Amino acid sequence: MIKTDEDALICDLAETYHIYNYRQLPADLVAVFSVGLRDDSRIKMKMSGQKIPLKTLLLASIADRVGILAWQNTKDGHEGRNVPKSLVESMTSEPKEREESVFDSGEEFKKARARILKDLEVNNGN
């Protein structure tokens, strides 16, 4: 645990057991305290690769299901449009990278703009 993230372990030990300097304690006692930390402690979440606590994911999943049930009873639900966005998906998915262009001069920008507008005309805006 120390090798993974010593700062997270120090925070968790201080928060849970009020141990502010674990190095003053015997190693086996620190090990016992470390194993006894909650599953949603900083260090255990980091070691398991979790970014969001299980409790939060379960609550978001419940909210998603209730939202779907309510949506199904609306006109949009009967027609299959405007499906509510999933909280779980928004919390667990990686943010999409925006495609950005950087230009060294105004002339480069004008050329790129003309090319984009020409492509739009050819495709009728689609």
UniProtKB/TrEMBL annotation:
Designated name of the protein: Phage protein
Disordered as annotated region, ranges: 76-105
Compositional bias of kind Basic and acidic residues: 94-105
Pfam families named among the record's database cross-references: DUF5361
Organism (species): Streptococcus equinus (Streptococcus bovis)
